[in-house]
Amino acid sequence: MEQFKAWWESITPREQQLAMISAVVLGIAILYWGIWSPLTNQLADSQKQLVRAESTLNWSKEKATVLLDSGVGKPPVRGGNLTQIINSSAQKHGIIFSRIVNKKGKMEVWITDVEFNRFIKWLTSLSNKQGVSVLNADLGRTERSGYIKVNRLLLSQ
């Protein structure tokens, strides 16, 4: 501090004024670019993020309404044991099993050749209306376009 006082007294009054003005300008620059500008940028970014979040929320609400209207989220209707549910549903959708194995409340099914869209509609119906979920699936290609082979499908309630 003594060195600063000695230096301050050794410079002319005009240089002292110039040093004080420079210090004030430097202080204002630090306040602006160090504090004010980052805060306003962060505020603008937060507002943009809020608008995106509100947009996502509105989209989610809209899609949730569509899903609820289509049956997802409604309590599933169970009409018998798992074997009966799977067999009756497959019959309705034209699905023919090549093999069925009951494993402690779970069902393994094999389907040799099935149209992919029909298979997906069947699984969706099982899930939405009967509360049956797919635990594991092993699917393969077939020679026919649009058809798949279900090597193993594990279903459970």
Structural account:
With 157 residues, the chain is an alpha+beta fold. It is built from 4 helices and 4 strands; from the N terminus they run H-H-H-E-E-H-E-E. The protein has a 4-stranded antiparallel beta sheet with strand order 1-2-4-3, with helices on one face. The longest helix has 58 residues, at 13-70. The radius of gyration is 36 Å and the shape is rod-shaped.
Please supply descriptive tags for the structure shown above.
single chain, 157 residues, rod-shaped, alpha+beta, 4 helices, four-stranded antiparallel beta sheet, 22% strand
What's this entry about, in short?
This protein has helices at 2-10, 13-70, 82-93, 116-130; strands at 99-103, 106-115, 133-141, 147-156. The chain is of the alpha+beta class.
What is the H/E order?
A: HHHEEHEE
Total number of beta strands: 4
Beta-strand proportion: 15-25%
Kindly provide the radius of gyration, computed on alpha-carbon positions and rounded to a whole number of angstroms: 36 Å
Structural class: alpha+beta
Distance between the termini: 81 Å
Q: Which sequence of strands runs across the widest sheet? A: 1-2-4-3
What is the number of helical segments per DSSP (H or I, 4+ residues)?
4
Largest sheet: 4 strands, antiparallel
Binned, the helix content reads 55-70%
- The gross shape turns out to be rod-shaped
Low-pLDDT windows of residues:
71-75
The residue-averaged pLDDT reads 84
